[in-house]
Design a protein that fits this description.
mainly alpha, 108 residues, UBN2_3 domain-containing protein, 6 helices, globular
Length: 108
């Protein structure tokens, strides 16, 4: 793997661990730390409001939203990620994953 390829993978991957349906709490902490380290935690813990289409901030919001969704999806096994691929915001993905896997882990 070249240096550029390594940097590309590091950019799109938050952690070497992946959500497999049984490790939600561990992955939750790893992902929160990694996203906080990139100064984007506010997208997870409070919904960063989508600006109006004509707002100059819209482009930045859309770019950050997409980037963080990619990070989250890449932190999941493919079979886990599939139902969350088409959710529109980071907060939607984060909450849906929590709703799906927190109760399952607490039940075991």
């Amino acid at each position: 793997m070249t240096q550029g390829t390594k940097a590309f993978h590091l950019y799109f991957q938050l952690t070497s661990h992946k959500l497999n349906g049984k490790n939600y709490l561990e992955l939750l902490q790893s992902v929160k730390l990694a996203i906080d380290g990139r100064d984007k935690l506010s997208h997870l813990i409070e919904e960063v409001k989508q600006p109006q289409v004509d707002d100059p901030k819209m482009s930045k919001w859309r770019s950050e939203n997409s980037m963080i969704i990619v990070w989250l999806i890449n932190s999941m096994e493919a079979f886990v990620a599939k139902p969350f691929l088409f959710l529109p915001t980071v907060k939607d993905v984060w909450d849906a994953v929590k709703d799906t896997y927190l109760d399952l882990e607490n039940a075991s």
